[in-house]
Sequence to fold (156 residues):
Amino acid sequence: MLATLISVVLAGILTVAGLMHALWGFGVTFPAANEQQLARMVVGKRGITRMPSMAACLFVAVCLFAFALLALMLGREVPMPVSKWLVAAAGGGAALLFAGRGILGVLPAFERALPEQPFLSLNRRFYSPLIFLIGVGFALLTLSLPYWTWRLGWLR
Fold:
C-alpha cells in the first residue's frame, strides 16, 4: 500500500519534471520571462545566457520519463517487462543517483562551481532537497520489493 503511494507520487513528480524539460527543449520559457532568465534558473552555469540544446533537454526528459516508469515498476503498478533483479538493480542505481545529486547539490564545492543566481538559492531551497527525497523514495521502493525477488531462484 505504501509502495503504491510512493511509486505513484514519484512517477508524478518525475513526469512533470520530464514534461518541463521537453517544453524547454521546444523553446517554452515557463516559468521565466525569457530564455536567459530560464537558463539562469535551471542551469546556473556562470555567465549562461541560453538554454542547452533541444537534444539535451529532450534527452533529460526521456530519462526522467524512464525513471517515472521505473518507479511504477518498483511499486508493482505496471508489469516488469525485464527480470526482477534488473529492475531491483535499476532501483538501487536510481536511489544512489538521485540521493547523491541531492547531497552534492548542497556542498560548498558544488555551490562554488555554479554561482549563478537564482539557481543557487533555488537549488539550496528546492532542487537538492526534492532530488534527495526522490532518491530516498527509490531506495524505499527497492527495499520494499518482496523477499522472493531477492532469493537466488528468482535472480533470472
